[in-house]
Amino acid sequence: MSENYEPNIVAFLCNWCSYAGADLAGTSRVQYPANIQVIRVMCSGRVNPLYVMNALQQGADGVLVSGCHPGDCHYMEGNFYARRRLGMLKDLMEFVGVDPRRFHMSWVSASEGNKWKEVVEKTVEDAREAGPFEGFRRRQIDW
Amino acid sequence: MTEKPKIGVYVCHCGINISATVDVETVADYALKLPNVEVARTYSYMCSDPGQVLIKKDIKEHGLNRVIVASCSPRMHEPTFRKAIQEAGLNPYYLEMANIREQCSWVHQNIDEGTAKSKKLVAASVAKVRLLEALESKEVDAEPSALVIGAGIAGIQAALDIADAGFKVYLVEKTPSVGGRMAQLDKTFPTLDCSACILTPKMVDCASHPNIELLSYSEVEEIGGYIGNFEVKVRKKARYVDFDKCTGCGDCATECRVKDRFPSEFDQGMGKRSAIYLPFPQAVPAKYTIDPEDCLFLSKGKCGKAPKCAEACRPGAINFDQVDEIVEFKVGAVIVATGFDPFDASRKPEYGYSDYPNVITGMEMERLVSASGPTGGKLKIFTGEGEIEPKEVAFIKCVGSRDESVGNVYCSRVCCMYVAKQAHLLRDKLPDANIRVYYMDVRAFGKGFEEFYDRVRRENVRYIRGNPSEIFKRGDKLVVKVEDTLTATPLEDEVDLVVLGVGLEPRDDMRQTMELLRLSQSPDRFFLEAHPKLRPVDTATEGVFLAGCCQGPKDIPDTVAQAKGAASSAMIPLARGKVMISAQVATVDESTCRGCGFCVNICPYKAIELVTVNRYGHEIEVARVNEALCKGCGSCSAGCLSDSIQPKSFRDRQILPQIAALGVLK
Amino acid sequence: MDLEQLRKTAAEVVARDDVKYLIGWKKGSYGSRVAPAFVEDAASVIELIFSPSCTANLATYLTLVEKTPLPRGQETDKRKVALMAKGCDSRAVVQLLVEKGIHREDVIVIGCPCPGMIDQSLLAGKYGDTEERSEVRWNGKDFTLVRGGDEIEIPRNDVLAEKCRLCRHPNPVISDYLIGEAVKEWDPAEDSGVGELEAKDVDGRGDYWEGQFSRCVRCYSCRNVCPLCYCQDCILDRLNPTWINRAVNFSENTAFNISRAFHLAGRCIECGECERVCPANIPLGKINRKMAREVREKYGFEPGLDPDAEPFQASFKPDDPEDFIL
């Protein structure tokens, strides 16, 4: 593991709870590691589980998916689908040898700015411990 | 194929909000080197008029066809910039925002880190914006009517305003009468208006208004649909009294075999009512209701030889066979005005509310001092031994508010003033009593509040700074154990009556309302507004608005103001008669859809159906989206194995390059 | 297996006007191998067989038929297709019904209770792979290899296919005609293949699969043979967006295999065809069985049993496991 390794985290956040919660962390000037970059989607249910695989393949060292708490989904059920799909993906990835510390899922509501900070810290810390992702990373990535 | 993307990138300083921890010039220089970027600029406030003009000018002069604004959260200003680029002739959906304020400059102190992250976020936006598609918003008709849930002062005011503007209003109230908490109050601070005197006319108005359909003793069971077209299902609970025949004479209650046996909800349990009852004399509608649990005939199947109420009722309104009725209707907007619950004082056992009858809550005090209350306004206190007129009275403030031990960190905003008001009313009735108020702080922030507080203190009401730790009994007195924190003196204060200034809490049934309308809670557990400052009456669900204490504790004028605000917001779609439906809906590629129906199963809005189409002579089934019903969540898409259904603006082919861009730039 | 009954039933079925053809097995061209038979008339039913060599899953042919464009005015052939189906094949049929890949009224299932199939590679390894025509038969407990007049007893576990050792549903779960009697179910063996991998640490598993996926030639046989991979246009073939690059290397191969396995989670009926046809001998069954077990044990769902079930990937339970959520 390199000395100055800073993990690169891609996060998928639902617009209504987790993205709003991350915004609230900002308005409250909560400080957290800058390793995380957010892709906004309307609902955690939008997150195709293969995005997680794709993010690792395309240069992420860790991936986070965050949505509304169960029962609070703006679209009623999207987070339940996300939970089932991503739970299965996590099992699959772990079985084919992807360190489980590279992928996390969380529920962060629009009012949980501080929880967002904790989730980011945990995700970054875990990815840091897991080290740079070599695995099945693409050698050449362009967009 | 569409024209080649020409992107303009606009990096906002946001004063120093962004530029203090993000080197915006470096970000702009970097952006200029990214593919398809024609222009990259910084400006102090992109959202300001000159900022927007800058973008519009570039669109015209440089022929830009895509715009990226790197500034605050898209939840804040996406509509602003969409409108701006539309005014310059671009499709409003050719915009992408990079959130470098809430999710970057404000959360990272190190300027190198902030700048590096901003670059990545801008790059990801460039990756996506190139692939965005032009979308057209569609308009659908809006139902010119509104639903108001809860008929306290907030709901009543909102309903009246909307009805006065000429729209139909369905006002749904859970209890048998409108009026809510305000009807229970005696006087209102700081003006000492009689609460009933100012409220009753409004109650009557909302029952008689030709545009208001009052559904009292009713509960909303289901709300489907979307702004402009909500489909509402309401359960009208059986009153067991024919609404049209009942004249409200009250003979039934007088004759009821279990007359005055049950605690009156309206009198906080201090007064009694019969099994058939009118909640309070001024109740609207003035129609009696039988409580099925209290009524002998309904609960036990037998009431003497025959129910006496039915015998007493001359119009023959009693109908034990009545059943709940389901009413369905459509509305264009919904106002939630479900109110609050007073804090349950038994959750502070050290104050002995459950043990001593002469420890009462502020709400009970309202009923005690009210001329229409259970004692006719006389201050008779039962101490456990006998009835006395109290000589020594203590008020305790902040009971259940500003108190982490009960999970309520917030200030309830009304207790300071209602305690001052009650102290004043007591002073009127008991000129010789010693009245003191134990307080942590006095927050007399409103119009006329400080003046009123001054006046009460001049009326020989002592304010003692200290938060009592315990109340216990000594002889026939209650002892308030407290430290006067201004003089650091421990006190054991002997009193006859303790009034707990209980705070306001979210209703215990608010979960139901949340689920009905997909609302969220703020950390204080009240309903969350769309924006704490700029959209205080809106919710995250379009077409659903908040009024009154369900959104947070507030006094009557604030409640009325918010109700009027909610009413005017709700009237926007009603008055236009049209609502825009989101352009960001799911769309199906019928040439690849395999018709498995996973998306049909997944869609919570039943917006997708399978239709039979002809593909090269073969009849096959494919999914089709009803755009008016689709909310664009995209859950269908993540469940589609052939990727055939995709939400516009959040397609796989728009998101995957975003992922790549974030990964490439380590 | 009562071949008489099979052929009689088949003749009856294919003689119907509303039946296009019957998909079953016939003798193959060499060794004890068999080949799929598409029987269109009663006269041809004589070639139908059912033997321990009928390992393959014919349900894949239900969706494999290419729907070529029809000339204007020509009607599409709406006749039913009949299918010989073992336990695992019948589960594929049920899962196709769940996913509307076929409609119940379009298929006639000739259920064939299955005492267990052989793995041709095991047979060849132990008893040689000769061109000479031979036949494998069930003899009650074990198998008998009939070759050149010799009858060789083969202990069941020597050549039994892995999917059969682990099988929980040897009898058809759906059928319109049942040939012979239901077989007595056996206790599925412990899935040591999956278990051994689970016993490794995550890096150990990573190394194992790196060794496997690196050998993948991306021929897509696993996908093409799978009865449940029946999209018109597989996302892994697409260019816009490009999920998987064309390059054959460890990165893309892994992404391909993860994607394929994920798409089958909660859908795979464990017929083992992907692994059987893999020219690189990648043990794909281990991944599929691992996921099937997770779905069964954690979510209480087993695909391909109930045609009225909600598709696993398109449903949820409020109390689905969430111990992995932060």
Summarize the topology.
The complex is a heterotrimer of chains A (143), B (666) and C (326).
Chain A: E1 9-14, H1 18-27, E2 36-41, H2 49-57, E3 62-67, H3 78-95, E4 103-107, H4 113-130
Parallel strand pairs in A: 1-2, 1-3, 3-4
Chain B: E1 7-12, H1 24-32, E2 37-43, H2 49-62, E3 66-71, H3 74-87, E4 95-99, H4 101-105, H5 111-129, E5 138-141, E6 145-149, H6 153-164, E7 168-172, E8 187-188, E9 193-194, H7 195-208, E10 212-215, E11 218-226, E12 229-236, H8 251-255, E13 262-263, E14 272-273, E15 276-277, E16 289-290, H9 296-300, H10 308-312, E17 325-331, E18 333-336, E19 340-342, E20 359-361, H11 362-369, E21 381-382, E22 387-388, E23 392-399, H12 415-429, E24 434-439, H13 449-458, E25 461-465, E26 470-474, E27 477-484, E28 489-495, E29 497-502, E30 504-506, H14 510-517, E31 544-546, H15 556-576, E32 578-581, E33 586-588, H16 598-602, E34 608-615, E35 618-625, H17 635-638, E36 645-647, H18 652-664
Helix pairs in contact in B: 1-5, 2-3, 5-18, 6-7, 6-15, 11-12, 12-13
Chain C: H1 3-14, E1 19-27, E2 34-39, E3 48-49, H2 61-64, E4 80-85, H3 87-98, E5 107-111, H4 120-127, E6 134-138, E7 143-147, E8 150-154, H5 156-159, H6 162-165, E9 177-178, H7 192-199, H8 202-213, H9 221-225, H10 250-264, H11 273-277, H12 284-299
Parallel strand pairs in C: 1-4, 4-5, 5-9
Antiparallel strand pairs in C: 1-2, 1-3, 6-7, 7-8
